[in-house]
């Protein structure tokens, strides 16, 4: 059995967290699982690298930005491998190109085209934990590319598909996926599972918990993933293709600017209720529309968080 464990920047923000990630890998190994770790840059590192580039030039070349930004993930992969070795687990850090992750040449937003994973497979066969740098690949010119901000999620899902992993666990600093962003909606409820299509719509509408292209890959390749907290020991949220009977009528709310989107198989028919709910509280809507399994209202950005909380209470209070 094979588990992909992906750790986001917030779960690798300092040495203590990095060692906790390594320990989670060892725990999984002790359950008899093979593990491939996929890592983001340590929290804030990518932003620092970008700021550095823009302090040198107002218009850095995209190729060079990718060469620079990709180093954040290489550093955390090497550090995680060092942490694993120090805990007695053989490990091997691998960059995107060493992992056989081939992309198109669209610097800054490249898409994975093929994934050979040769060295990953041979490391696994030898009982070694490959620690793969997320967010990066190599194009047909031999240049390093990056997959877009948040792209380590895509690396994890693409590897899960290519290696036919049994589990794909995405570790982050929240306990899982909730009915709305819990930083904005304190009463947001943690979900045990959610539908991949609903999650993708929520991502397009502004939910930041998973990178949208990673969900596109999950849908295309049929990968089930689990979003879980790196420090809470909980089960997190399973993201998979639910049958129509399992799929809840409403999946969640997302916010982008002043636009609030309700997603779920019954969402489009809820638009009148959304408008009524806000009108009753005197919140004006500039624009609204319903689409496939979704509906949105647009308010003044300054009222948006209040409106989001009202709509959450309307549709998700128990
Ligand atoms: N380090 C990159 C970013 O900050 C990629 C990732 O974290 O997934 O966007
Ligand atoms: Mg992320």
The unique ligands bound to this protein are:
aspartic acid, magnesium ion
Overall SS class: alpha/beta
The second-level CATH architecture of the largest domain is: 3-Layer(aba) Sandwich
Q: Going by CATH, what is the homologous superfamily of the largest domain?
A: Acetylglutamate kinase-like
Mean pLDDT: 97
Number of helices: 9
What is the radius of gyration computed over CA atoms, rounded to a whole number of angstroms?
A: 20 Å
Number of domains in the coordinates?
2
| Major β-sheet annotation | 8 strands, mixed
- The CATH topology assignment of the largest domain is Carbamate kinase
Secondary structure topology:
Blueprint lengths: L1 E6 L7 H16 L3 E6 L5 H12 L5 H25 L4 E4 L6 E3 L8 E4 L2 H8 L3 E5 L2 E3 L5 E3 L5 H11 L4 E6 L20 E3 H9 L7 H10 L3 E5 L7 E4 L11 E5 L2 E5 L7 H10 L6 E5 L2 E5 L5 H13 L2
Parallel strand pairs: 1-2, 1-9, 2-6, 3-6, 9-11, 10-12
Antiparallel strand pairs: 4-5, 7-8, 11-12, 13-14, 14-16, 15-16
Helix pairs in contact: 1-3, 2-3, 5-7, 6-7
The structure holds aspartic acid (ASP) and magnesium ion (MG).
The site of magnesium ion has 4 residues, from loops.
What report would you give on this structure?
This protein is α/β, with parallel strands linked by helices. The protein has 2 domains: 2-173, Acetylglutamate kinase-like (Carbamate kinase, 3-Layer(aba) Sandwich), CATH 3.40.1160; 252-316, Alpha-Beta Plaits. The protein has 9 helices and 16 strands. The strands form 4 sheets. Strands 3-6-2-1-9-11-12-10 form an 8-stranded mixed β-sheet, with helices on both faces. Strands 13-14-16-15 form a 4-stranded antiparallel β-sheet, sandwiched between helices. Strand 13 (252-256) and strand 14 (259-263) form a beta hairpin. The radius of gyration is 20 Å and the shape is globular. It starts with a strand and ends with a helix. The mean pLDDT is 97. Magnesium ion binds at residues 8, 150, 153, 211. Residues 8-9, 40-41, 46, 72, 134-135, 149-152 line the site of aspartic acid (ASP).
């Amino acid at each position: 059995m094979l588990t992909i464990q992906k750790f986001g920047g917030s779960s690798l923000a300092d040495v203590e967290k990095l060692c906790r990630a390594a320990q989670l890998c060892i725990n999984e190994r002790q359950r008899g699982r093979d593990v491939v770790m996929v890592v983001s840059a340590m929290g804030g590192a990518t932003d620092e690298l970008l700021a550095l580039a823009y302090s040198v030039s107002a218009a850095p070349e995209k190729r060079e930005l990718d060469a620079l930004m990709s180093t954040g993930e290489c550093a955390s992969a090497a550090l995680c491998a060092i942490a694993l070795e120090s805990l007695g687990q053989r490990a091997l850090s691998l960059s995107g190109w060493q992992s056989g992750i081939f992309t198109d040449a669209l610097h800054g937003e490249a898409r994975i085209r093929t994934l050979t994973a040769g060295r990953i497979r041979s490391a696994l066969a030898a009982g070694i934990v490959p620690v793969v740098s997320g967010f990066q690949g190599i194009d047909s010119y031999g240049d390093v590319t990056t997959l877009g901000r948040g792209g380590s999620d895509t690396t994890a899902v693409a590897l899960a598909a290519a290696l036919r992993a049994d589990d794909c666990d995405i570790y982050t600093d929240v306990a899982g996926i909730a009915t709305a962003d819990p930083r904005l909606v304190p009463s947001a409820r943690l979900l045990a599972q959610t539908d991949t299509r609903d999650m993708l719509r929520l991502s397009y509408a502004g939910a930041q918990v998973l990178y949208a292209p990673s969900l596109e890959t999950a849908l295309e390749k049929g990968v089930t993933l689990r979003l879980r907290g790196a420090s809470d020991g909980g089960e997190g949220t399973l993201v998979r293709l639910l049958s129509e009977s399992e799929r809840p009528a409403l999946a969640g709310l997302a916010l982008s600017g002043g636009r609030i989107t309700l997603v779920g198989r019954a969402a489009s028919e809820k638009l009148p209720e959304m408008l009524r709910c806000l009108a009753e509280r005197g919140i004006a809507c500039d624009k609204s529309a319903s689409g496939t399994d979704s509906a949105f209202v647009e308010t003044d950005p300054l009222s948006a968080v209040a409106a989001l909380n009202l709509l959450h209470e309307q549709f998700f209070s128990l």
